[in-house]
Write a structure and sequence with these properties.
By secondary structure, the protein is mainly beta. The protein is built from three helices and 14 strands. The strands form two sheets. Strands 1, 9, 10, 11, 12, 13 and 14 form a seven-stranded antiparallel beta sheet that branches. Strands 2, 3, 4, 5, 6, 7 and 8 form a seven-stranded mixed beta sheet that branches.
């Protein structure tokens, strides 16, 4: 359970419905499927420049090409990531999307501070089904610590204020 109230009481939990939450780290490595056809595997996640939203996934496709999968165009199911069509992949070079954002794998391990005090290193980011970042998971000597994204939470040098 995340620590209370950086975004206000009940954010992302019972009492304020917002749909399922997903750990970004758990999305990486999942197969991307169209019906029963495996199209590729998510090899990284791309967040916006301010780390407010999961923009999409870097998918290594069966032909060896990396393609960008916009997060809103996919459905996260128990065992894989589902798409309605192979046409949802954007053919533009994934580097184009990396340039304006943050690559999840490069954020992992950066220091996480809460109100100026270092609490651990970034282990994961928890997002809502629409992609907005709800929680930051910091690895600490006592185990993972989940913090609600909001003012006072800083990853590296990025102040994680909620998107409005």
């Amino acid at each position: 359970m995340p620590e209370p109230g950086l975004d206000g009481p009940g954010t992302g939990h019972p009492g304020g419905w917002m749909g399922p939450l997903h750990r970004t780290g758990a999305l990486v490595g999942r197969a991307v499927m169209y019906r029963d056809i495996r199209l590729g595997v998510a090899v990284d996640a791309l967040l916006d420049g301010l780390v407010h939203r999961l923009v999409g996934l870097d998918v290594l496709c069966g032909d060896g090409a990396h393609r960008f999968l916009p997060f809103p165009a996919c459905d996260v199911v128990e065992t894989h990531i589902s798409v309605d069509s192979a046409l949802v992949f954007l053919e533009r070079d994934v580097d184009f999307y990396r340039a304006g954002g943050r690559v999840f794998s490069k954020l992992q391990g950066l220091p996480v501070r809460l109100s100026g005090i270092e609490v651990g290193t970034l282990a994961d980011v928890v997002v809502a089904s629409a992609g907005d970042v709800r929680h930051v998971v910091a690895a600490t000597s006592g185990g993972d610590r989940e913090l609600e994204s909001g003012p006072g939470v800083v990853v590296g040098n990025l102040d994680l204020r909620p998107a409005v």
